[in-house]
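Re: duplicated header lines in exported structure tokens

Our pipeline writes sequence and tokens for each protein into one text file. With two proteins the header for the second block appears twice in some exports. Here is an export where it did not happen, for reference. First protein block:
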Amino acid sequence: MSRTTTVIASATLIGAGLTGVAAQTAGVANAAGCEASSRATKDAGLGVTHTYAKSVTQTAGAGAKVTYTIDVGTTGIGNPYVQSVTDIPPKGFAKPTAEATVYHVVGGRKTEKVPVTAAGSGWQVSTTGWFVNASNPATVKFTYPMPTFSVPGLSVTSGGAEVTGTVGVSNKLPGLTACFLTRPISPGEAIGSVGDDLSSSGSTEQIIESTISSVIKGIMGGIGGGLGS
């Protein structure tokens, strides 16, 4: 079985029972072009390159919460200060909460909650200046409540991102998108007790496949391998 098929079919069994397998098969087509992360670079001259990345959990329970992570970094001798990061979420997403992990002169890298304000079609966090160098990117996480009308089996792609700051780090990045697959909500997500690592890219497959992949393969063989190989 393909990795995507295993993840989707397994998640369906966990959340909805064996009867959900056939229905969830339709979601495999949606998964084909669903990339959970994207990256971009900007040449700032003098051997300095600014880097940008956006990522999201590989799967998320429909009606739960989803977190987008935006990283702004640099290479070489560059040391810009990031002054704002704006995330453009999928349509229909309400105001998020946010936290930033950035370098401080006293105490080094720290994670702290930051206020969010509306900015065009997205949501922005701002500061007088977060220091960035080759060892210390600025990382901002935006956590959104998923729309209540969301249903399992769909791919959801975000908009891009925008960054402002000093030393050429400012950039508009409409193509810096991230896509996740919806699945049935888990009991833990329903009460808000499940962290990102349940459904993050990489760990989802490890958790699900290590516990029930053999069961899934047996079921697929029993129904003629209808989910493909």
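Second protein block, exported in the same file:
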Amino acid sequence: MNISPMLSAINSGDGLKQAIGIQLLSKSSDMQAGLTGTMLQDFAQAQAKVTAASVTPHLGANLDIRV
């Protein structure tokens, strides 16, 4: 393994900026994935509550027919 290019990149600061940028991108991506999962779970719970509230137990029990 050739270490001199790595050392020169670290000493120049460009490699450090790139490494920090990659780490920030990774952290941001992880956080975004976590928040998306939470948002989808909340949405599913809200939909279940709306569906449960709109169910009418007497639907179809009586027919109103006029001739």
